[in-house]
Amino acid sequence: MTRRPGKSGKDVLVVLFQEVQSLDVTGPVEVFTGAGLSVGDPGAYRVTTASLDGAPVRTFSGLTLVPDHALAGAPVPHTLLVPGGQGTRAPDARLIDWLRAHAPSAQRLLSVCTGAMLLAEAGLLNGRRATTHWAYSDKLARDHPEVEVDAGPIYIRDGHVATSAGVTAGIDLALALVEEDLGRDTALHVARNLVVFLRRPGNQAQFSAQLSAQTAQREPLREVQRWIAEHPDDDLSVPALAERARLSPRHFARAFRAETGVTPGRYVEQVRLEQARRLLEDTARNVEEVSRACGYGTPEAMRRAFVKALGSAPAEYRRRFRPALSH
């Protein structure tokens, strides 16, 4: 493999294989391509695809993708992206050999979803923190004990290696890299065009509070779940929520936990924390305003919740994700 000389911008090579997950490929590709168009420089990211022998591959959903190269003839990329899919279950040994031999030459090595399985099989995640789709995290940890698997975050960056969770998390990771390379405004422009959030931080859980808990079976309890999400600054005590569900507090608390898997208090904590993180990441509201909007009442109450759950105070959390708002 030879590096292209004398060109600005970043080469991004996406590895293709049979039964790849199509969104793992197209999501990041749309982000990188859109970023170049946004800044008026289509060469900001030069995206190419390659399969083992250069032949078309059939995705798990039945789409056919035609690669630009065979892997053997592909140039060394700045960024190498390995998607996931059903094809990672029994990968071609030649693909693992190629990754083991050539992936270390890339300045950035990325995986989406179960693409982490391929990186791990090639020994590229040894001694690193990594994530993958929540449904496969146990398998990754079991098959590769030398990898420090964390099933919680939507993506993890460990040095020049970044692994992401299922499907849309690849878009989040790509947006984070665009923001790093070309600035927040460019990443925001791309996100708006794709109608996605900018940006879920890597340490955000793969499940939102609403998805982490089960949806209640009974409509009164489902309505309470919706109310909590839409009114985090309201009175969300058990008696108030029980009255909304037209149940006694004791019956409500027992039924809510039985049907959602968490206590009402824990569910409220998760919703408020998630909402506060979003406001700190995506708005210019100060900490006091955010604490009121999310039902904490005082900045100190929100600080305690952040330190307990995230290990950092709200101001420090904002500095990590929105440094411009911290000055």
Question: Could you explain how this protein is built, in words?
Answer:
It is a single chain. With 327 residues, this protein is of the alpha/beta class. The protein folds into two domains: 10-194, Class I glutamine amidotransferase (GATase) domain (Rossmann fold, 3-Layer(aba) Sandwich), CATH 3.40.50.880; 209-327, Orthogonal Bundle (Arc Repressor Mutant, subunit A), CATH 1.10.10. Helices cover 45% and strands 12% of the residues. The protein has 14 helices and eleven strands. It has helices at residues 22-38, 93-102, 115-121, 137-143, 169-182, 184-194, 209-212, 219-230, 238-245, 249-260, 264-282, 287-293, 299-310, 314-321, and strands at 10-15, 45-51, 57-58, 64-65, 69-70, 79-82, 108-112, 129-130, 148-149, 155-158, 161-164. Strands 5-2-1-6-7-11-10 form a seven-stranded mixed beta sheet, sandwiched between helices. A two-stranded antiparallel ribbon has the order 3-4. Helix 1 (22-38) packs parallel to helix 5 (169-182) and helix 1 crosses helix 6. The longest helix has 19 residues, at 264-282. The protein is globular, with a radius of gyration of 22 Å. The termini are far apart.
Spell out the blueprint of helices and strands.
Blueprint: E1 10-15, H1 22-38, E2 45-51, E3 57-58, E4 64-65, E5 69-70, E6 79-82, H2 93-102, E7 108-112, H3 115-121, E8 129-130, H4 137-143, E9 148-149, E10 155-158, E11 161-164, H5 169-182, H6 184-194, H7 209-212, H8 219-230, H9 238-245, H10 249-260, H11 264-282, H12 287-293, H13 299-310, H14 314-321
Parallel strand pairs: 1-2, 1-6, 2-5, 6-7, 7-11, 8-9
Antiparallel strand pairs: 3-4, 10-11
Helix pairs in contact: 1-5, 1-6, 5-6, 9-10
